Amino acid sequence: MREILECLMEARDLGESVVVATIVDVEGSAYRREGTKMVFRASGPTSGTLSAGCLEEDLRYRAAELLQANRAAILTYDLSVEDDLSWGRGPGCNGVLTVLVEPVHWFDKGCSGSYWRTVLDEMNTGTSISTIRKIDMSSNRILDHAVFRQNHFAVRSFQQSEPFAKTKLQLFSDVWRSASVQVGSQLYFLDYLEPKEQVTIFGAGPDVEPVVALLTKVHFDVTVVDHRPARLSCARFPDAKRRICARPENANSISLPEASYALIMTHSFQDDVLWLGHLLRFDLRYLGVLGPQIRTQKLFDRLGIENAAQRARVHSPMGVSIAAEGPEEIAVSVVAQLIAQRHANDRQRWMYTACTSTIL
Asked: Domain map of the chain by residue range?
């Protein structure tokens, strides 16, 4: 979803129409699950995949037709048959996929344009959201949508007579998954959407440059913090979303989002003491310190932190153990550990989903 959001935001900023294909229902096994998306831009490029290569060419053809006609469609692909004329030719393809394919014209007041403008605006706040869309299967029309954030509706167009929407969203927003519920000819598609994870790096030395470049390639949102304006130039960090000039003595001026990532890479013991003391106040998904473990233990000693649970929150040495040498290899090591942490959280969510899927 992270690269899909980037693609949609870029198209929106250019005013370029797109077609979004979303898996809204899966029967049996499939390569991808409900909520998986693919974007077809009017200028030709695509982002994302819905299968292992079984469907994409057909979807490209259908997307061009629907964009020209400016109408949505519900497509069904049966991947369970394995003859040469069927769709099921890729590994993991052995189910039936229902796919919503919708043109999005950013300045159109129609349902799809309004919905995706709202989603991107909400994603820019850095908050995960749940949405529900009401689709009439007989006419291929998207009738209504609602956006649910932090236990309240951010946007709603459902009628008050449909308490189903809010009831399901309140339950579903804690399950972190996409799913669908059909009631008669109406399909209610519930989608869970996450913004890009935010990484804040403290330090702007030469070894930080390849870390930032690699993090952005794998769709993290990166902020670099350093007290040296010359080191924070756009030329050194063209991919960083934010570059903040701040001294560690003024650490209280820096606030980090909940469940974000932080890396301390200043190469200054005193600066690391100040930044670490500040960052331990936040509920972070990942906190890493560059350097050997014995050095990090000295940081804790200087801060007077003896609590084992507090010390265990910090990854030190930072990065996956691959005997890395040089800035580029160290960057691979560090980014690999953040990717592992990202997907560890995904697995936990799917495990929780398996236990709670009956609410849908």
From this structure: 2-193, 198-344
Record: fold of 198-344: Rossmann fold (3.40.50)
Alpha carbons within 13 angstroms on the beta-carbon side of residue 174 total: 11
Q: Is the pLDDT of residue 156 over 70?
A: no
pLDDT number for residue 193? 86
Which DSSP string do the residues of 20-84 spell out, in sequence order?
EEEEEEEEEE-SS-TT-EEEEETTS-EE--SSSSSSHHHHHHHHHHHHHHT--EEEEEE----ST
The pairing of strands 141-149 and 152-156 is antiparallel
Residues 283-321 pLDDT 10s: 999 999 999 999 999 999 999 999 999 999 999 999 999
Q: What is the pLDDT, as a whole number, of residue 350?
A: 39
Residue with tokens 């077809």: 40
Mean pLDDT score of the chain, rounded to an integer? 85
Quick one: pLDDT at residue 157? 58
